[in-house]
Amino acid sequence: MINSNVHTHTDFCDGSCSMEDMVKAAVGRGMDTLGFSFHSFTPFDASYCIRDRSAYLSELERLRRKYEGEICLLDGVELDLYGQRPSGCDFSIGSVHYLKEGGEYYPVDLSEESFRTAVREVYGGDFYAAAERYYEEVAELAADIVPDIYGHFDLITRFNRGGRLFDENSPRYMRAALAAADSLPRGAVAEVNLGRLFKGEGGAYPSDELIKALAARGCRFMLSSDAHCTAALGFAFAEECARLKTLGIKSVVRYKGGTLCEEGL
């Protein structure tokens, strides 16, 4: 069991549970480290972002005092490519959630209907063109933000279960994805995000092929719940460790306290 998770959302942004409920759940599951990762503020779409950072920080300090000696609590941010970067965080998860075209922002993970509509209206129905733009933005994330962790690398596949929108093995798609993989610095930490798996809506991010490609480029991996509720914390971590081994991954990294360390599988 990997006893930490640092991709955690609460009711201070788009999560459904309180910070303390998340802490209690993490302690109950034997975790030694829990990182909160509120969504950075995006002025064009405030619906899912941090609502009151001052109150959030006050609550974090209260919980650190209350649960001192039981669990280490870290202050992190899931920083969107187009979000505002806060100061003083313990770590950052860099993510792409929008396709930016002509000064407009189109979410890739809000709903399948909205994604299909955006692809039809902006890219003439060409899902591969949307994927190419998405992976250009992943490369921008690597160049301009350089986060501590790269979040859900292939989120553009959010609604592509069973290949119903496009073929993830096609040369055109893989060319765009591998170009983005090449843009990551050697040793970059890519999360293996289990949020979609928890919802029963598909597999983990990244895909098996992209995990192997990222590993070949020197990337490291971190298990991530992307938890928006207590039930998701640590979901399928043990099973995912076993699956990663079958892909040739020998170790993962994780935060233990404030230190990034490596653990063998």
Question: What would you say this structure looks like, in words?
Answer:
This protein has a single domain, classed as Metal-dependent hydrolases (TIM Barrel). It contains eight helices and eleven strands. The protein is globular, with a radius of gyration of 18 Å. The longest helix has 18 residues, at 127-144. The strands form four sheets. The chain has a five-stranded parallel beta sheet with strand order 1-2-3-4-7. Strand 10 and strand 11 form a beta hairpin. 34% of the residues lie in helices and 21% in strands. The N and C termini lie close together (9 Å). Helix 4 (127-144) runs parallel beside helix 5 (171-183). It has 265 residues and is α/β, with parallel strands linked by helices. It has helices at residues 19-28, 53-66, 112-123, 127-144, 171-183, 195-199, 208-216, 237-246, and strands at 4-5, 33-39, 72-80, 91-95, 98-101, 104-107, 149-150, 189-193, 220-224, 251-256, 259-264.
Portion in beta strands: 15-25%
What's the alpha carbon Rg, rounded to whole Å? 18 Å
What would the CATH topology be?
TIM Barrel
The unreliable regions are: none
The neighbouring-strand order within the major sheet is: 1-2-3-4-7
Count every helix, treating DSSP H or I runs of 4 or more residues as helices: 8
By CATH's scheme, which homologous superfamily applies?
Metal-dependent hydrolases
User: Quick one: how many beta strands?
Assistant: 11
Tell me, briefly, the overall form: globular
